[in-house]
Automatic annotation (TrEMBL):
Family: Belongs to the DNA mismatch repair MutS family. MutS2 subfamily.
EC number: 3.1.-.-, 3.6.4.-
PANTHER family: OS10G0509000 PROTEIN, OS10G0509000 PROTEIN-RELATED
Organism: Mucilaginibacter celer
Protein name: Endonuclease MutS2
Chain sites annotated for binding ATP: 341-348
Protein encoded by which gene: mutS2
Highest taxon above the source species: Bacteria
Entry's Gene Ontology BP terms: mismatch repair; negative regulation of DNA recombination; rescue of stalled ribosome
């Protein structure tokens, strides 16, 4: 239930419907848009939203749906239903084109079975009767003209007409040539008069040829004569044309009779085309306003994230401006939000945004808000916006408001959404305020939900002391004296009446006089609200700084954890390598001892031979021992470091390679990580002392860096694939320290470009995005600059 009925106009819903109608391809689709209304059935709402969302996904991410023709075949089917009536060539062409579109659409979805279940439900159980199309194709060609071979009789008649026309033309050409050679013909050539081919003759020579004069020139000097011989042939042609027309009517009548049993199916096909046009228009409008499908729940509540007024969004988009997004929540805990703040601060727009988006969702339309938004279902919409005074009904502005309040209080319930603008105005504030407070209390007792705007202090106080009602304010910069258009829940706002009056230039003596006329208590309340506003803004700015610092701390902690993990892995690798080396040394030593003993035995314990074998054994063991215990050579302390040198941190066993030297700092690459250390914390080591595994990994990374290109071409790719490839390029660019990327996406209709930019905005590492120069690709190429 909508009360009053003109609420759709007050909230801008009528304008939304007109914008959707502009996207329709057919009059049937436009008629369906006209019938859009607010629904209260959860299943219906969810179904219509899902259909629009699926069609939007097709338009953005999939191949184009083969929709080419939308004709009103319902009226044609109803015409064919009548016995004795036949469809014309043009009408059969419209039926033919519409059937081709229907069958192409069904084939499109059959190829993608299961991807778009809600759209597939539009033609579920709808039979594909191609026999109709075959019957029409046998008679009507692809240009909408009747085929020459539609029947044997038509072909014979057509052939007869062609032969008679050729004979008549040949005959008249010969007569005209003869008349010209005799000097009888006037200047000019053969022409048409009354649908007959005639010869232009000089008036004085008209009796020199037998025939019929059809016309003469304005001066009377030229007559247009049809020769007698040709006259008989032309009459024969005309008779044949009448026969042809009768045969065509006969063929079309027979075809209409064959079509008549399929009229119910044609009406079903008409319904499918109408619904497709309707859903397509809703999806195109959703793309225009960058709309998403919110989460829909079967409860009377609403929670919006980054919501924007669609009409305001389109206006600002044309002016290349942005709309400040709205975040708000209405549920059982916060049923009614009382919004206060300065005039022109955005209170009414905020309330209208909530009402319009709720109305759009319950009409099956996607909304310009984050997809994480939650929108419920309300059974009633009660709206009081603007001036509804009526001379005919003898209602003043305030009387009209009170009349609405009476209806609200009597009929509202827990599933009612109320939207009241400038609550209580229109009469003496001394009485209007208490009456508004009483109405609000009565509505709160009925558990209604909604939003009201006001300047009355008593309503702000009532909201702060009443369960279920919450104060909110539109933020205002009282230093620059300009509204910020941001809704802040929890605190009432000042009207900034004196500050705005001062900015406008009202004389100071008038302002002082006005300040002296208000009560001391009201002064304190307004001053308190201004101070609260200032403190809120200060707290908000401080919170933003703390959040930024916390993000940096989290990044550093994550980097530290990665470094720690790498060091532990490196340590395990070194220990394993040392153990393997020691094991090999022991095995080699055992083999050497065994071989020495074997040789001593074979020489029968000869003293000289035994001594020599023992010396060889000692030399070999010492050599292996040196290999294990030899210290890693280090470079002299005073040797200058340069990029490419290998270094070790003095307070750990971590080894890395110098990437860059900045004054007293050294940028070191340790595996995938980059770290900065003071020069005095590192010691240069020789390359040979660095484990092969570390050198190999670094070499691989260096090769990757050398081969890496910060450019990608995603033209022709589906949006999902393009974003996936861009994400991989983005990750590698961050890891390798690149500060910009070049993305080639083409121009087209701009959808891929918009989706890519929206996707990259969510990364904090992105500083800005710009188009390429117009001479080198313009908005078909995006440059992404990283922080």
């Amino acid at each position: 239930m909508l009360y009053p009925p003109n609420s759709v106009d007050k909230l801008g819903f009528t304008e939304i419907k007109e914008l959707i109608k502009a996207h329709c391809l057919s009059e049937m689709g436009q008629q369906m848009v006209d019938k859009i209304g607010v629904m209260s059935n959860y299943d219906q709402i969810h179904k219509f939203l899902s259909q629009a969302n699926e069609f939007k996904n097709i338009l953005v991410n999939d191949e184009a749906l083969p929709i080419q023709h939308f004709f009103d075949i319902k009226s044609l089917a109803n015409k064919a239903r009548i016995e004795g009536v036949f469809l014309t060539e043009e009408e059969f062409y419209q039926v033919q084109a519409s059937l081709n579109t229907v069958f192409a659409v069904i084939a499109y979805f059959n190829e993608r079975e299961g991807l778009y279940p809600n759209l597939e439900a539009l033609f579920e159980h709808l039979p594909i009767e191609k026999a109709i199309l075959k019957k029409i194709d046998a008679v009507i060609d692809q240009k909408g003209k009747i085929r020459v071979n539609a029947s044997r009789e038509l072909m014979e008649i057509t052939t007869g007409i062609t032969k008679a026309e050729q004979e008549a033309r040949k005959k008249i050409d010969m007569i005209f040539k003869n008349a010209t050679s005799n000097g009888w013909a006037a200047d000019g050539s053969l022409t048409i008069r009354d649908g007959r081919l005639v010869i232009p003759l000089l008036a004085e020579n008209k009796r020199k040829l037998k025939g019929f004069v059809h016309d003469e020139s304005a001066s009377g000097q030229t007559v247009y004569l049809e020769p007698e011989e040709v006259f008989v042939l032309n009459n024969r042609i005309r008779d044949l044309e009448f026969e042809r027309r009768r045969e065509i009517v006969k063929i079309l009548t027979a075809l209409t009779n064959e079509l008549r049993p399929y009229v119910p199916l044609l009406l079903s096909y008409h319904g499918l085309l109408t619904k497709l046009d309707f859903v397509r228009a809703k999806a195109l409008f959703a793309i225009d306003i960058e709309a998403e499908m919110p989460q829909v729940v079967n409860e009377a509540r609403v929670k919006l994230y980054n919501a924007r007024h669609p009409l305001l969004f389109l206006n600002f988009k044309a002016e290349k401006k942005t709309v400040v997004p709205l975040n708000m929540q209405i549920d059982e805990g916060t049923r009614v939000i009382v919004v206060s703040g300065p005039n022109a601060g955005g209170k009414s727009v905020c309330m209208k945004t909530v009402g319009l988006l709720q109305m759009m969702v319950q009409a099956g339309l996607l909304i310009p808000a984050d997809e994480a938004s939650v929108v419920g279902v309300f059974k009633q919409f009660f709206v009081d916006i603007g001036d509804d005074q009526s001379i005919e009904s003898d209602l003043s502005t305030y009387s009209a408001h009170l009349s609405k309040m009476k209806t609200f209080v009597e009929q509202a319930n827990g599933k009612t959404l109320i939207l009241i603008d400038e609550f209580g105005t229109g009469t003496d504030p001394q009485f209007g305020g208490p009456i508004a407070e009483a109405v609000l209390e009565a509505l709160n007792q009925k558990k209604v939900k909604g939003m009201v705007t006001t300047h009355y202090s008593n309503l702000k106080i009532f909201a702060s002391n009443t369960e279920g009602i919450e104060n909110a304010s539109m933020l205002f910069n009282n230093i620059e004296m300009r509204p910020l258009y941001q809704l802040e829940i929890g605190k009432p706002g000042s009207s900034y009446a004196f500050e705005i009056a001062q900015k406008i230039g009202l004389p100071q003596n008038v302002l002082n006089l006005a300040k002296n006329k208000i009560s001391e208590g009201q002064k304190k309340v307004d001053t308190l609200l201004v101070d609260l506003e200032r403190e809120k803004r200060s707290i908000f700015e401080t919170k933003q700084k703390l959040d930024k610092q916390q993000r940096k701390v989290n990044e550093l902690l994550a980097e530290n954890e990665k470094l720690k993990s790498y060091l532990e892995e490196n340590q395990r690798s070194l220990i394993k390598e040392a153990k393997d080396q020691a094991k090999n040394i022991i095995l080699n030593a055992n083999k050497l001892v065994e071989n020495t003993i074997s040789e001593i035995k074979s020489s029968n314990a000869d003293k000289e031979k035994t001594r020599q074998l023992r010396e060889n054994l000692n030399v070999e063991l010492k050599r292996n021992t040196v290999k294990v215990e030899a210290p890693k050579p280090t470079a002299p302390a005073d040797e200058e470091l340069k990029p490419g040198d290998w270094v070790k941190l003095t307070d750990s066993e971590t080894t890395g390679q110098v990437i860059e030297i900045i004054k007293e700092n050294v940028v070191i690459a340790i595996g995938d990580l980059r770290t900065v250390a003071k020069k005095k914390r590192v010691v240069k080591v020789s390359k040979s002392s660095v484990p092969k595994e570390i050198r190999r990994n670094f070499s691989s990374q260096t090769n990757d860096l050398a081969s890496f290109s910060p450019e990608i071409d995603v033209r022709g790719q589906r949006t999902e694939d393009a974003l996936h490839n861009i994400e991989k390029l983005f990750d590698r660019a961050l890891m390798m320290g690149f500060n910009n990327l070049k993305i080639i996406h083409g121009k087209g209709d701009g959808i891929l470009r918009k989706m890519i930019r929206q996707y990259l905005k969510k990364y904090d590492q992105v500083d800005r995005m710009e188009d390429e120069h117009a001479d080198r690709g313009g908005d078909g190429i995006t440059y992404v600059y990283l922080k």
